[in-house]
Design goal:
- It is a single chain.
- The chain contains eleven helices and no strands.
- By secondary structure, it is mostly helical.
- It has a domain of 172 residues: Orthogonal Bundle (Tetracycline Repressor, domain 2).
- The longest helix is centred in the middle third of the chain and has 27 residues.
- It is elongated, with a radius of gyration of 19 Å.
């Protein structure tokens, strides 16, 4: 639904044709490093993108001009363009720093030889770990897709659809195995996404809840409604913990140590 803000994994209308998962390409969001730059170029650019994400999350994409960003990072407009190319390139990079870690975790999770309930629970944890570890990025990601144009917009929407397809595939598998009651996988996907996608709006990193706790709570609600019969929650959580420990930790986005600040909450 390109005419409205698209949330993480936001679904296409029911019945629309699926193009299937598309391989993630770093070129969709990376800003090409010009030849001849010193090694510190990449680190400085990462800092600029991180500051841009914070400013855009607070003020909105349109309100953050190149002059505003330049002043925030201590660069003139010419030097700023040297690092980031264009304002739209910044937005592409911000969007990619949400999608890349999410897909890098979700793809191998979907391939784990485990019950679909375990894998769906792991995808839930991956989504929340990525979201809560980069709140400013997610705010921009959720609200500013409409400011991308052409190939940049198409590529990022395709990657969002890939994540949705992973969730739908696991739900379809759970329905086919009899773990979930028969139903519409598209509707169940929307239920899964709606439980997770607005967490960034109210989450407070200083509070008692983290991604692990929220994922368990959300999936308890979802599975309780979808499962065809009772399931052993304790056994499920034990398998989830064992599987999750085999995946690398979700790292903060590049540049995050610069100007550390607690995320705002609504």
């Amino acid at each position: 639904m390109l005419g409205a803000p698209v949330t993480i994994g936001h679904s296409r209308p029911h019945g629309a044709a699926s193009r299937g998962p598309a391989p993630y390409s770093r070129r969709h969001h990376a800003i090409a490093r010009p030849y001849g730059h010193a090694a510190g170029f990449e680190g400085r650019r990462a800092e600029i993108i991180d500051v841009a994400a914070r400013l855009m999350a607070e003020r909105g994409y349109r309100a953050v001009s190149m002059d505003v960003l330049g002043a925030a990072v201590g660069l003139g407009k010419g030097a700023l363009y040297h690092y980031i190319g264009s304002k739209e390139h910044i937005l592409v990079a911000i969007q990619g720093r949400v999608l890349e870690p999410l897909l890098q975790l979700s793809r191998p999770i979907a391939a784990v030889p485990a019950d679909p309930l375990v894998r769906l629970r792991l995808v839930s944890r991956a989504l929340l770990e990525v979201m809560l570890g980069r709140l400013e990025y997610v705010r921009v990601y959720e609200h500013d897709l409409r400011n991308l144009r052409g190939a940049n917009r198409t590529a990022l929407v395709r990657q969002r659809r890939e994540f949705e397809a992973i969730v739908t595939g696991l739900i379809t598998e759970a329905m086919g195995s009899g773990t979930f009651r028969p139903g519409d996988p598209h509707l169940a996907t929307l239920q899964f996404l709606n439980l997770h996608n607005r967490t960034y709006e109210w989450f407070d990193a200083r509070g008692p809840w983290d991604a692990a706790y929220l994922s368990e709570a959300y999936c308890r609600t979802l599975f309780g409604g979808l499962c065809a019969g009772a399931y052993d929650e304790a056994a499920l959580e034990e398998r989830v913990a064992q599987s999750w420990a085999t995946f690398p930790p979700v790292e903060p986005p590049p540049g995050r140590p610069v100007r550390p600040r607690r995320p705002r909450t609504r």
